[in-house]
Amino acid sequence: MSQAVSALLSPLAGDKPTSPVESPLSWVAVAAARKELGTDTPAVTEVADIATTSAVVTPTAATTAAIAPPVNVVAIPQVPLLTALGLQRVPIIGQLFVTPIVAFVNSIPIVGDILHPIFGYPLQAGLPAGSPQPEDVRIISFDGTQINVHFMPAAGLLAGQQAPTILEGPGLGMPGATNLNGTPLDGIIEDNLGQIGIGTLRDAGYNVVTWDPRGEYFSGGQLELDSPDYEARDVSSIISWVAQQPEAKLDGPNDPRLGMVGVSYGGGIQLVTAAIDHRIDAIVPTIAWNTLNDALYPNQDFKSGWGTLLTAALLATFARPDPAVYPAAVYGDLTTMLTQAQQDLLAARGPGGALDLVSQITAPTLLFQGTVDTLFPLAEADLNAKDLIAAGVPTKVVWFCGGHGVCTNNVFDPTDGQVIQQETLAWLARYVMGNTAVSTGPQFQWVDQRGQYYSSNVYPVPTGAPIVATSTTPSTLPIVPLLGGSGPLLGVLPIGGTQAFNAINLRVPAATTTTYVVGAPQLTLTYSGVGVSRFVYAQLVDDSTGEVLGNQVTPIPVTLNGKTQTVSMPLNMVAATLRPGQSVTLQLVASSADFETALALGALTVSSMTLSLPTADPSAVTTTVV
After folding, report:
1. DSSP characters for 583-615?
2. What global pTM score does this model have?
3. Domain end point (choices 395, 430, 456)
């Protein structure tokens, strides 16, 4: 009882990140805690604490080369309150009343995870004596920060047996999942976000490990946005702890057979960790990013819609982020801009950009990205994939209708979830289980605006002749806030585009044959104008449905000084199939709910405009039956 209360109330070590330690000899060395429940909690000595006052964590050698894996990682056992009280083992009452309540709470996404320190895991009846049991620990990371970790053995694993392990990281603002046997919403979550349920992974023969990232929920420290210097090294410590578990299959000393899955924040952590820790055998980053600057600050226009929602999620969950995070979000919301220091903060987080961590990844990588993802668009996975393929890493790319957005065209169609589960399990079976007989299929699969899947044996798909539309008829766009602009999606969501009324329209010639539009359209426009707006916005509308392709809106920078200007740039990537007679229309709009345009005023006259739509070579495209 006293241990359970202590687990709930004890202060967390490592409230601030400390300077990364360069030498393996400098990793935290504390006597290993015994796994048996009821042992004394070891004293934790924190590495010299250096207050972080700078907005930027400068990348170190740890981010430019694989680190030496930590060894003998200390783990402090955590005992949920009801487990400590032994109520599930009380004859009759435990089996008939307590365990069903615990099982119900455990099956509720997020809520069950937050209440886990109280309720714990449901007792697994009927298991042979000595069967591995789930457990919770707080591991001591490299800088003394305690990371809250959950270990759930593979379903059916017997005493003395070992299984490969999958690490599943949570999304931003989410706790590490503890739903031992899955949840009733797993199918919906899988279909819309791409997240594989714990029950699915355990049933497939994997131990599953989850955790609260630093700065969130029951972990200590300060949230650093998947920094390779902090969160990635936390995961490296978790991997070393997994290697100490008797249930973990090993490839060698301190080297567990291990893969990673996870969406969004849980996708980004895979990429940065795999770059610095080559013990990872395969990763499946889903709706992740290449560079946060490109994702959150495209063409130097801050995504205020997503910035506000993400900030609200951190505030609502009492997260403890780097002190520079909240001011950056507020400044971006108010001004549409980020300072150079704030841009540097984002540049130091994630696998791409100047850090170029992607080129250091050796683990076979399956990338899922959402066609309607307006936070991390398709280009983020595209950049990661091209770098990985160039480095010779086994790579596959799947575009599905989901992610940080709303799949408005097939909300109740479970096909995307089926594809995600099938491809994920095949990838893990091939590269983590080591079953070379398993086929991982074509290198590229994508879904169009109707929910039909296609594939290509190579990524990117070989190109066909582009579709080009041009207008030289002068048109004027009044620039006013919100009125007649794009969005909000479904009338309320500032995370996607809708057909606009205040727009300059350029209709693309109708297709004469079945045409696969796959990739980033290129827009060139010549204009002049006056006003205070820094941007107009471009989107593609499906003329047959009136919906914006992928809900994607691209900010186009403009200079309204009365002089004639020309700008040429790619739009957000899309995937659409045009049947004979079908067409799309480019809309140039004054405002978008995705971006703050409250102070945008002026007028813009376009004298010429050209749009080029990329297409796939029909001979390289195969229709996929799911």
Report:
1. -EEEEEES-BTTS--TT--EEEEEEEEEEEE-B
2. 0.89
3. 456
